[in-house]
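Q:
Just now I want nothing more than another pair of eyes on a protein record. Here is the record:
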Amino acid sequence: MNDSFQKKLEAYENGELSGKDLEEFEKELEKLETYQSFLENDEMDDMPLDQKEKQIIKKGKWKARIQTTYFVILLFIGFTIITSILTSVYYAWGDPDRAEVLRNVVDHTLTVTNPYGYLSHSSLDSGNLYFNMELTTPKKKKIGDEIIEVGEYKSHFIFSFLRMREENHFGSISQSSPSFVFPGAGSDMTSDWRKLERLPEGTVTSAYVSFTDLLDTEEVYELFSEKEIDLLWLAVDSGAENADERNLGVIFNSIGFPSFPIWHDDDMILESREEEKGLFGSSVISEGYSSPTYREGDYDVLHQQFLKTLTFLQEHENLASRVIFGDLELEHKINYLEKEGIKHYGVVITGPTKEILSLQENDNISVLQIDESRLWNWMNRGE
């Protein structure tokens, strides 16, 4: 606003303009009001302006739009930086931190509900923003001596809530899945002995084995002790397996534990600790841990760690149930196991096909279902 216009405006406001000067100044004010209306309502094309005035106003419009865009971009960048810092703080809070707890819930849930779940260890994907976190868990199987990745799970969290879980498979998917049969349930499920007979000598197989009676852990190990077979996972009677008579004893949702203890973070033994000075006087601590020594046949340790895992999952049962898309009902299961003890109605095994076929005459086995077979990869245990 120039000095001449400022003086006229002051004179106009003070009532000092008259005649022709007043008329000309009011026309100038009307034109300014028209400009203002255009800037607010984007009606440049309908205005009686010459080409130069239109160009000036159009340039002003684009300048305003660019400034607004820059502001929005800077606001978005600032918001992203702030939320990324807060997201990192949220998931790193605690000892162990929240991210580690969520990862343990996913891993331990798979360990006790999936016969191959103990083979999978979740990894935290980097670049988590807006209070989101993603865990990737490989889905693996052991057939013979080979561990094969057959898929993966994706767990998407917002804060500590599992908002979505994806399951992806690699390769073909079998239309039928093996399962266990509860002892004495009268199921008409047939065994796969004939299929085993037709498989060639140079193959290995993994299979689900159901027992005629509930067996103690020691009895299960003794059953396979003379065989060249690896015991992978032991299904546990939790008091709920034979509750639904409609399934005729076929168990679709098992719980159990692998053939070694399920160790937790607080079980780990500190082996080494190094502290190095970093920038600005900070220190970087590097620690090495190892799991406790386990002697095969110490079944009390297997039971203790299994119950410890169920108790841990009970503290996060809503999340654990979302991992398996079902209700774990852990309080009932824990109470039952503490009262009745730990017994098994089935196991998952792997080994040479013909060695597994030799179990056909064992009276302790009611049903055997093949999970998967592969070409020979078995190391001679006698070497």
Q: What stands out?
A: DSSP finds ten helices and 13 strands in the chain. The radius of gyration is 36 Å. The CA atoms of residues 150 and 171 lie 7 Å apart.
